[in-house]
Write a structure and sequence with these properties.
By secondary structure, the protein is an alpha+beta fold. The chain is built from three helices and nine strands. It folds into two domains: 56 residues; 103 residues, Immunoglobulin-like (Sandwich). The chain is 30% helix and 30% strand.
């Protein structure tokens, strides 16, 4: 009877480990910009008509912003962002003369945290100007600034505590079963 209990506890322990491993995520990170059109430092002979941003996962459809500025900090009109799966796009509604431009984007990641970045590009023979993003007016921040956590506790710590606590409970159960077996 005791051997059956011990086997049962070992089976439960193995099932717990398998379940814990299947629930863990390979990378705990915010979504990322995978590609864009225009792409970083791309040069166009004719001005693009649309901005397209491809992310690693579907972003939330709230709080998205796409701004377009030139090297002097002047703003150019961009339509409202539209969402299609992992893609966010916006029409460029102003004519873009030859020059250096920066797309400043900000979206809410699928985990609820804001992410942002910049994409510099040029039209014509203009030199690249990465300082244009710092002159842009608006709430979009440069990509070098990490997104701040908006919660007081990171969910990974909760998961770690639950997995650790469950593992400890199983280990104690196995220990108790072995100790009871030795007494008999």
């Amino acid at each position: 009877m005791l051997l059956t209990r011990l086997r049962f506890l070992i089976l439960i322990g193995l099932a717990y480990v398998a379940l814990s491993a299947s629930l863990s995520t390979p990378v705990i990170a915010h979504d990322q910009l995978l590609s864009s059109t225009p792409s970083v430092d791309e040069n166009f002979s004719d001005a693009p008509q649309e901005i397209s941003l491809q992310y690693s996962a579907e972003v939330m459809q709230v709080g998205a912003q796409v701004l377009l500025t030139d090297s002097e900090g002047g703003s150019f009109a961009v339509g409202e962002p539209s969402f299609d799966g992992t893609s966010v796009s916006a029409q460029i509604t102003d004519e873009l003369p030859e020059g250096a431009y920066t797309i400043a984007w900000r979206v809410v990641s699928s985990d609820g945290h804001p992410i942002s970045g910049i994409v510099p590009f040029t039209v014509g023979d203009a030199p690249h100007n990465r300082d244009a993003a710092s002159k842009a007016d608006g709430p979009v921040e440069a990509a070098e600034k990490p997104a701040a956590s908006q919660t007081g506790m990171n969910p990974i710590w909760v998961r770690t505590a639950l997995v650790g606590g469950g593992g400890a409970a199983i280990a104690f159960g196995i220990y108790a079963a072995v100790a009871m077996r030795k007494k008999k």
